[in-house]
Amino acid sequence: MARRRTEIQKTWRSCLLSYRRFARLVAVFQRAINFVDNFTELTAFEIHYFKGRVNYRLLFPAPAFRRWIDRERSIVYFPSNTIVGYGRWRANEYGTQIWRCFVLRTLAPNNPGVCIPGVSPSVEILLSTRGARRSKQFLASIDGLKRRGDVVESFSASYWRHLHLMLQLNHEPHAFGEAQRAAVSVKQKVVR
Question: Is the pTM of this model over 0.85?
């Protein structure tokens, strides 16, 4: 009788352990499903670097998540309504083939936007340059803003549109002034 009771207790314990393992496994799958659901709401950018041939790069800000494909390629992800700087440069044995820079605002899923190569899903274009001269002007202006200590990812969409128009017209863009900084800080306080 005692032997039978210990066998039943052992069986019961093993069933309980199996149930606990199963419950932990279900919890892991549930977290994975939640992660994938949140993952589909992110905007993906292709980052690719191959010396002298390809340089698709992120100009700003730091990504929310990065997934490495191999040593030269990765995919970075951003939540919706994030302003992102993105540059695409490609060359072959004859020289530069494309050189484009963008400042984009990521959109929530199912919002209409523009399709950009290397970006999925669509985005809103705030600034776009094409060609070496304008792209270098844009990169120089970004470097100048960063040198002054400005956080370029906090700039408003209207400033990027202004910069786009000034670059297209070959005019010197207006500096990001104290009034604009104050407006951005007030906006960030209101949004929070």
Answer: no
